[in-house]
Amino acid sequence: MVDFRTGAWTPEEHERFLIGIQKYPKGPWRKVAEIIETRTIRQTQTHGHKFRLKLARHEAKRARSNEKAFQYPVSPATHILDEMPPEDLPPLAHALDFMIQQLDEPDAQIAADESLKELIK
């Protein structure tokens, strides 16, 4: 008999859960629970419900933030950035992380302004 765990899900259990719902996107929950091995069918079903609610909240937040016009950080000295040689610019991965942060965080505009001021100094 398998001893089922209780409490918070481990990263490994969640990883197995994700594999299970990829394999069985519409169920049955019993099959997903068999892939996880350490959770009951009811625990798996509840975790799935909470996971889908979390995804829906994230998508709604993203949709709301996309409705607002995104404003890039603007400073009177931004022309300095235009004059910088490409080798002085941050790597592309850093720039992409910065853009994602701007889209995801409500207070990122303030942080971006501070970051830009530091670059210009």
TrEMBL record:
Outline the extent of the Myb-like domain.
1-52
Per its UniProt record, what InterPro entries does this chain match? Homeodomain-like_sf (IPR009057), Myb_dom (IPR017930), SANT/Myb (IPR001005)
Q: What Pfam families does the database record attribute to this sequence?
A: Myb_DNA-binding (PF00249)
Give all residue intervals belonging to the HTH myb-type domain. 1-56
Q: Report the transmembrane regions from the record.
A: none
Q: Which SUPFAM superfamilies match?
A: Homeodomain-like
Name of protein: Uncharacterized protein
Q: What organism is the protein native to? A: Thraustotheca clavata
